[in-house]
Design goal:
Serine Threonine Protein Phosphatase 5, Tetratricopeptide repeat; 20 helices; 0% strand
Length: 429
């Protein structure tokens, strides 16, 4: 299992900092703390005032004046870099801000700052260095922050990313696990990058079961088309899988818009067509055409024409087929009808026919529970759907397909539960 690592982002707090006037007398923090020289302090104060008015040209001119002072002290240079970083962040010039913050925390005068300033500078350097992919600097800033107190999940995740990119998989995985633990108490989703790292670490150590479990967590919380594609591909490789089991997985692939290989569009269409579900066969082919994964030519064109013709015939026959199924003494025809309704997206009718099949009795009750469950899920009736799928049993491939559908249901329930809370939060930029 492979996944592109890693997506990281800035924290809005970076843009919330402020700069105050530079004092040219010693700070109260320590008697021996140095102070900014008047030659440097005066232009720095000019730079701050200009920045507060968004007069960037004047701010940069004042900064250059401060930097041109000869034989400045290490503390003077540190304060210059602090103000330079502040101005750069306000202008969203993160490259300059990164260089400046990295210089601040590397300064021999850094230890003379009060602890709060040290912590804030290390925190900002950590975020900026992460964005710039300066992994050694991220590790340095994070490890120094850890000595001052516990890291939050964002800092831990960024540290895990840095370890990962420095190819220290042991520390990367351990730190990613700490990041996840840090958010568990708050009942927040685990950081995506932390999960990616754990999955990658498990895969690199040939822990397929561990990697698969983490992939399921990624899919549950973040559900990208790539995540679903990997899970479904893995399930399609289950030993003893039947065409019907595969069809349940292809139905999930269709709904999730999972990453799909070109052949899978035609394979799923052929299975649906073979089982007598031409409308469903057309769905898969059309999705493949819409995504430009397949083209309307050759064998695809032949399959498309066949499915189109058969759908037309099937639609005309559905009323008679429905009556015949209702009159039948067993549930075999009702079950076939329920499966056929799926391709027409007549999910309520699929539920009715599936339940009728169960009531009359069928050779494979598991199939009936499966089609009823996914038809309920497609209508957003997640609790009832989960109950139906819980009654699916049989071979490992069938159980695996049902488990993935249950995972999809759980992801939908989580999204629905989180939606009101998310809408109440201010947008983050």
């Amino acid at each position: 299992m492979k996944r592109h690592l890693l997506r990281t982002a800035f924290i809005a707090a970076l843009l919330c900092g402020s700069a105050t006037a530079i004092s040219t007398v010693p700070y109260a923090y320590a008697a021996k703390e140095p102070h900014v020289s008047r030659a440097v302090g005066e232009p720095l104060n000019e730079a701050i005032k200009a920045a507060q008015k968004s007069n960037w040209a004047a701010a940069h001119a004042a900064l250059q004046k401060a930097e041109s002072v000869p034989k400045i002290s290490a503390f003077d240079q540190l304060k210059i870099n602090q103000i330079k970083a502040f101005i750069a962040v306000q202008q969203k010039d993160f490259a300059t801000a990164t260089t400046a913050y990295e210089a601040v925390i590397a300064s021999p005068a850094f230890g003379t700052l009060d602890p709060a300033q040290q912590q804030q500078s290390l925190h900002n350097a950590l975020l900026l260095s992460t964005n710039a992919h300066h992994w050694p600097q991220v590790i340095d800033a994070a490890e120094r922050l850890q000595k001052m107190g516990p890291l939050d999940s964002t800092a831990l995740t960024n540290l895990a990313v840095a370890y990962y990119n420095q190819k220290d998989m042991t520390k990367a995985k351990a730190t990613a696990e700490q990041a996840i633990t840090a958010v568990e108490a708050a009942k927040q989703p685990p950081p995506e990058a932390a999960l990616q790292i754990i999955m990658s670490a498990d895969a690199s150590s040939n822990d397929e079961a561990g990697a698969l479990k983490t992939l399921e967590q990624l899919t549950l919380y973040y559900g990208t088309s790539d995540d679903w594609g990997q899970l479904i591909d893995n399930a399609l490789g289950t030993s003893g899988i039947t065409e019907l089991d595969a069809l349940y997985l292809y139905r999930l692939r269709y709904l999730t818009h999972a990453v799909t290989a070109p052949d899978d569009y035609t394979i799923s269409a052929r299975i649906a067509d073979k089982r007598g579900y031409p409308a469903e066969a057309l769905q898969y082919l059309q999705q493949g055409l819409n995504t430009n994964k397949i083209s309307d030519s050759g064998k695809v064109a032949q399959l498309l024409a066949k499915a189109t013709h058969e759908k037309s015939e099937d639609e005309r026959s559905l009323p008679q087929i429905t009556l015949a199924a209702q009159k039948a003494s067993d549930g075999k025809q009702e079950l076939a009808l329920a499966e056929d309704y799926w391709g027409y997206k007549r999910y309520a009718d699929a539920v009715t026919a599936g339940k009728a099949a169960l009531a009359k009795g069928v050779k494979d009750p598991s199939e009936a529970h499966f089609i009823v469950g996914i038809a309920l899920a497609a209508q957003g009736q997640y609790a009832q759907a989960d109950q139906e799928l819980a009654q699916v049993d049989g071979a490992p491939a069938r159980a695996r397909a049902a488990a993935l559908w249950k995972l999809w249901i759980k992801s939908k329930e989580q999204s629905a539960a989180a939606a009101p809370a998310a809408s109440a939060q201010p947008a983050q930029h």
